[in-house]
């Protein structure tokens, strides 16, 4: 059989298995439209119309897809998806959920017996291990849209990727509100370094995961193995570093940081707040976060939001009228995540209901996702609404009064400012609310959260004020 035709024959065999195990209507919609492209070794590449199509296919039919591929190709079978865009951008390529992702080379690690407490005369053994970098191929620089909101962060990331550990940007500390691309940027740096320097060991981990791993290592008496593991990393990316709370885990991280930094290894951190606003962190660790470059990712402007939507449409392989994209970009201004979610919901609604993507459908979808008034929330509006609700003056709210009702009103104002206004640091909120420092604001936010979980009446206060600030879309 000619090699050119083998991929078609293999896919036809898979189709026969799908047809026997999938509802006929679903088989016609989701499988008959897939086009086999190539078969190289055990890797079959197929073409699908959109990224949404790919995502739904794997969510709904991954078990039968894996079964068919392994039955026809063998246990080493892998699947790649190719998605052709509408515009002239290069085709987007994704690995299947069970396919290959970036891998590190195997390394030798020093290990101790779990029952031992290593001392100066206890010699470790050597174990060959493969460290999973935990990188998502979709989070690459090519899939990022550059604008004024993230230009500095992307430029620094590209510079780091060219010369990891050898630039002044070490560590790189990226901070900003949710959905602004911190994780994407951090992973893009790791992917670019992995591609350019395959011999370097790259690892992506969250602050909470690091803390959990540390606690497990202590519990299992494997702290020496844990430290050896992390000190072997060449590029360490810690997402949501603000979750790394606790003196013991911070002490371990401090020693790992020192070892890697002094060895010329690259460190990348992300956080929802600037280093100066981090609370419950050792001062020696905070000072190290400030050694390199701190970059804030800001809310995207209109042109950047529109560019992101156009790029995602090309990636999905769909054509959407520019007026519809402008509607989405004008109504959803907070972050990339909400904007992207609205576009995917719009495409999904049109695909599953067999409708055209119209302005009316876009209005309906965005109305279910975000209220138009939400983006009008400002510090002044928060203070005005809180004062109106509690029947106090602005001067009283901003005063140094320690009366219980005034303190609670002030704390609620701080809490809602932090949750409803994007890009506001704790220091900025404190300055606007009577010249308080960031520690006071953080304490106020934690106090409000605690009271909301235990005091039904207090929870009602906060809910009422939030509804006044952000009316629920009907």
Task: Describe the overall structure.
- With 474 residues, this protein is an alpha/beta fold.
- It has four domains: 93 residues, DnaA, N-terminal domain (GMP Synthetase, Chain A, domain 3); 179 residues, Rossmann fold (3-Layer(aba) Sandwich), CATH 3.40.50.300; 69 residues, Helicase, Ruva Protein, domain 3, CATH 1.10.8; 95 residues, DnaA protein, C-terminal DNA-binding domain (Chromosomal Replication Initiator Protein Dnaa, Chain: A), CATH 1.10.1750.
- It is 51% helix and 12% strand.
- It contains 19 helices and eleven strands.
- It has a five-stranded parallel β-sheet with strand order 8-9-10-7-11, with helices on both faces.
- Helix 8 links the parallel strand 9 and strand 10.
- The chain is globular, with a radius of gyration of 26 Å.
- The termini are far apart.
- About 7% of the residues have low confidence.
Could you outline the blueprint of secondary structure elements for this entry?
Blueprint: H1 3-21, H2 24-30, E1 35-40, E2 43-48, H3 51-72, E3 78-83, E4 92-95, E5 106-111, E6 125-130, H4 151-162, E7 172-175, H5 182-196, E8 202-206, H6 207-219, H7 223-231, E9 235-239, H8 247-262, E10 266-271, H9 283-289, E11 293-296, H10 302-316, H11 322-331, H12 336-352, H13 359-369, H14 379-390, H15 394-397, H16 404-420, H17 426-432, H18 438-454, H19 456-469
Parallel strand pairs: 2-3, 7-10, 7-11, 8-9, 9-10
Antiparallel strand pairs: 1-2, 3-4, 5-6
Helix pairs in contact: 1-3, 4-5, 6-7, 10-11, 10-12, 11-13, 12-13, 14-16, 16-18, 17-18, 18-19
């Amino acid at each position: 059989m000619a090699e050119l035709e083998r991929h078609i024959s293999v896919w036809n065999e898979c189709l026969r298995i799908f047809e026997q195990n999938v509802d006929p209507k679903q088989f016609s919609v989701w499988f008959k439209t897939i086009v086999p492209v190539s078969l190289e070794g055990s890797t079959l590449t197929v073409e699908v119309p959109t990224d949404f199509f790919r995502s739904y296919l794997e969510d709904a039919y991954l078990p039968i897809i894996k079964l068919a591929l392994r039955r026809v190709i063998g246990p080493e079978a892998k699947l790649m998806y190719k998605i052709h865009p509408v515009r002239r951008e290069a085709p987007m390529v994704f690995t299947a959920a069970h396919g290959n992702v970036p891998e590190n080379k195997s390394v030798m690690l020093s290990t101790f017996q779990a029952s031992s407490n290593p001392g100066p005369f206890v010699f470790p053994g050597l174990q060959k291990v493969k460290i999973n970098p935990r990188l998502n191929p979709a989070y690459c620089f090519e899939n990022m849209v550059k604008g004024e909101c993230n230009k500095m962060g992307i430029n620094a990331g590209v510079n780091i990727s060219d010369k990891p550990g050898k630039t002044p940007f070490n560590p790189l500390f990226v901070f900003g509100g949710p959905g602004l691309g911190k994780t994407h940027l951090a992973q893009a740096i790791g992917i670019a370094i992995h591609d350019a320097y395959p011999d370097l060991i790259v690892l992506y981990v969250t602050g909470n995961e690091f803390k959990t791993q540390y606690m497990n290592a202590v519990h299992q008496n494997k702290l020496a193995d844990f430290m050896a593991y992390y000190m072997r990393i060449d590029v360490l990316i810690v997402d949501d570093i603000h979750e790394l709370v606790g003196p013991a885990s911070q002490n371990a991280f401090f020693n790992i940081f020192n070892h890697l930094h002094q060895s010329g290894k690259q460190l990348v951190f992300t956080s929802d707040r600037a280093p100066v606003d981090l609370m419950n962190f050792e001062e020696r660790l905070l000072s190290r976060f400030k050694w390199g470059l701190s970059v804030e990712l800001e809310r995207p402007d209109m042109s950047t939001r529109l560019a992101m939507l156009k790029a995602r449409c090309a990636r999905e392989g769909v054509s959407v009228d520019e007026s519809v994209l402008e509607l989405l970009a004008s109504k959803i201004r907070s972050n990339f995540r909400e904007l992207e979610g609205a576009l995917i919901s719009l495409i999904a609604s049109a695909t599953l209901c067999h409708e055209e993507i119209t302005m009316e459908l876009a209005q309906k979808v965005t109305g279910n996702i975000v209220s138009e008034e939400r983006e009008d929330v400002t510090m002044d509006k928060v203070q005005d609404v809180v004062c109106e609700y509690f029947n106090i003056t602005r001067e009283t709210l901003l005063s140094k009064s320690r009366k219980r009702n005034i303190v609670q009103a002030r704390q609620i104002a701080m809490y809602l400012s932090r949750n409803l206004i994007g890009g506001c640091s704790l220091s900025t909120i404190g300055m606007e609310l009577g010249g308080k420092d960031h520690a006071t604001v953080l304490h106020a936010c934690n106090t409000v959260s605690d009271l909301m979980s235990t005091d039904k009446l207090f929870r009602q206060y906060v809910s009422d004020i939030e509804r006044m600030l952000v009316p629920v879309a009907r």
